[in-house]
Structure formats: structure tokens, C-alpha cells
Amino acid sequence: MLSVSALSKSFGNTPVLQSCSFTLPVGDVLAVLGRSGCGKTTLLKVLAGLEAPDSGDVQFDGRSVLGIPAERRQVVYLYQEPLLFPHLNVFENVAFGLRIRNVPGPDVTAQVEAMLASLELSDQARKQPNQLSGGQRQRVSFGRALIIRPRLLLLDEPFGNLDAQTRATMQDLFRTVAAAYAMTALFVTHDTREALTIGTRFGYLEAGQLTTYDSRSAFIDDPRTGIQADVNFWTSMYAGQ
Q1: Using CA atoms, how far apart are residues 84 and 137, in angstroms rounded to an integer?
Q2: Helix (H, G, I), strand (E, B), or coil: what is residue 223?
Q3: Which interval of the chain is the signal sequence (predicted)?
Q4: If you write DSSP's letter for every residue of 175-221 in order, what string do you get?
Q5: With 80 as the cut, is the pLDDT of residue 80 above it?
Q6: pLDDT tens track for 36-59
Q7: What digits encode the pLDDT tens for the residues 181-237?
Q8: In this structure, which long-range contacts are made by residues 99-107, counting pairs with CB atoms below 8 Å and at least 24 apart in sequence?
Q9: Are strands 63-64 and 201-206 parallel, antiparallel or unpaired?
Q10: What is d(CA 118, CA 98) in angstroms, rounded to the nearest whole number?
């Protein structure tokens, strides 16, 4: 269980996060919707240990992690741009985290092959990153993150640089893989469809203040998310035909 309580962060005199609180059980994906500049990236950086909060706490299973360095939190932070090792092929990029943990070779092979299969990358295993499409590189990035079984996966609009069709494919694939690996993740986006596709839980961040919802319908019905307005627009368009 991830538990965040009264988390606040300012840069100079500008408040960026204001008393954010939420819980996230193991195996759930919290999709946080918000416009640019609302504090989404700062929230992820605080959870990852890349920024220190001004106040509040971050706990895993009842224990605070604020005093633990980022590299020891068992948290992986993925950006829009997949940061792969250019000198390693797909297999070795995914295997990297296991190798530095001295996992035996046969176990590395078995785990990486299973991961590549789940990400539909088995036929790309020997290719270099520069031989892959944007969507394929993002899949490799996911594989490298998931193979070490992080306690929490943080995703900062990871599909933002992809074209619409590839983005939709990646959203569906992410949902499938997240369920298969019981992934615990916080996924921030400004895209309503993406939030609804990916999340098992939902939040809305505005001016540094986070609202979480008891249900998908409550998230949809909040006028701030704009989802119901979109539904009404397309309903009226079809009705006019």
C-alpha cells in the first residue's frame, strides 16, 4: 500500500503541490488527469525521491520513505522519451536490471523471454534501439522497468510523443500487461481517454490540489475533467445527422 498524506511543495513563493493525500493499494493503477502546469510531474518526482517535499509524508506499508534515497526506494520513473542504452540490444536492455542484481544466466533468459513475449517484442530481441519504432522503444522501456518488479511504477505521460494510432495500441497493451504483472502504478496524463483506458482508480489534479474518486462514474461526472462535456458534444453531433 502506498499512502501519501498532506504532501506540499513550493518553488520559491509558488505553491506547486498543496496538501495532496491519497492511498494506492498493491496492483492498482491510479490515473491522474490534469492540465499542463498543474503539478503532475512534481508529484511524481517527490514520490520517486527526486524532489523533497516541504511537508507531508510518503509511506509504503506504513513506513515513511522520505529519508530513503531514490535508488533504494524500489520505484521506477518513466518519462515520455524512453531512455534506453543505445549500445545494448532489446534483450540486453530488458535484462540489465537482472544482470546488475547477479541473477543467474538461465533465470535471466527465462524472465526476459517471458517479458518480451508479453510485450509482443520476441521478434525484436536482437535489434538495437535505433532500429525500433517509437512504440517499440517504449515497450522495451516498460520491460526493463517491470523485469525488476518495482514496488511502484511512475509514468509521466509516457505515450505523449506517439502518433494517435500507436498511442491507442500502447494504452491497450499497457492495461493488459499491468493486469498480468499486478502492477502498482501512478500514471499522469492530460488525455481523458487515456486516463479512462488505463486507470483502475482515478484522480484529478488542479493547481496542486488532488481530488480522488470513489468510482469511475464519479470521475466522469466531475465537470472539471471535461469527460461528460465530450460525451454530450458527440451525442449532439450524432443526433444532428
Answers
A1: 8
A2: helix
A3: none
A4: HHHHHHTT--EEEEES-HHHHHHH-SEEEEEETTEEEE-SSHHHHHH
A5: no
A6: 888 899 999 999 999 999 999 999
A7: 888 999 999 888 899 999 999 999 998 999 999 899 999 999 999 888 777 766 777
A8: 101/148
A9: unpaired
A10: 17
pLDDT of residue 234: 67
Residue tagged 453531433 (cell numbers): 237
Query: Averaged over 14-30, what is the pLDDT?
Result: 94
CATH class of 2-239: alpha beta
Show the cell assigned to 201.
482508480
Place of cell 495532496: 20
Cα distances (Å, whole numbers) of residue 209 to 40, 163, 205, 218: 10, 30, 6, 17
Beta bridge partners of 58: 4
- Is-contact 180 114, C-beta < 8 A? no
pLDDT at 135: 86
Cα separation, 233 vs 69, in Å, equals 47
Q: What are the grid coordinates assigned to 101, written together?
A: 542484481
